[in-house]
Amino acid sequence: MKKISFLLGLMLIISTMVFAQSENVWVPRGYQGFLEMNSGFQVANDGNSTTGISTTHGFYFNGHTYVGIGMGLDFCDIYGNNSSDVVVPFFANVNYLFSNTKNISPVIKMRLGSYVGSGHGTYADLGFGVRFGSKRDFAVTVMLTGTFYSNLKDKYVRTYGEYSSYETIKDLNISTISLRFGIEW
Which end of the chain is less packed: N or C, by CB atoms within 10 Å? Predict the structure, then answer.
């Protein structure tokens, strides 16, 4: 909770600096890079926490549509024992900016790809948020996101003596809902 409060305060300061500038907003075009940080909780895994960082690089087409590729590092408490397991998603990213001529604009983001780490599988992410633009090639984004990871298979084998063993396979769902903060340059 302290991290979220700190990040919200930081976003408030940055947005105040953005609004202190004139009303002319830079219209995004060409190459853009994103750096984003998220903090949230796992939906089906007893609300265990997750944090992550990701970067995306691509191009704006027509000032509204962004297409890029990226990767991230998500630190998930998969087993509920306060230890971090690393999941690395690789994805294609599409953003749609509803108004590219105003300081504040709604934005929607979709990511599709795969992940590796404690397991591997399909990765999908959908986010809705607000973009705070400036008159320079810089913007700040705050989003609410839902992230889907295909279920991990946890295989636990217990051996009794030399010849007998017991095997349990359990599905782990590490899909998350999170708050994501990002910068665009």
Answer: N
- Rounded Cα–Cα distance for residues 59 and 104 (Å): 20
Name the 3-class secondary structure at 180.
Answer: strand
Distance CA 55, CA 9 (A): 22
In a structure prediction context, what are the per-residue pLDDT tens digits for the chain, which is 185 residues long?
556 666 566 565 555 554 444 456 777 888 999 999 999 988 876 778 889 999 999 999 888 999 999 999 999 876 666 667 888 999 999 999 998 888 899 999 999 999 998 778 899 999 999 999 888 888 999 999 999 988 766 655 666 666 666 665 566 677 899 999 999 98
Distances (CA, A) of 45 to 34, 76, 80: 29, 10, 8
Strand pairing category for 30-42 and 104-117: unpaired
Tokens at residue 88, please?
């690395």
Rounded Cα distance, 175 and 76, in Å: 10
Identify the three-state secondary structure at position 163.
coil
Q: Both tokens of residue 84? A: 């971090």
The pTM of the full predicted model, rounded to 2 decimals, is 0.76
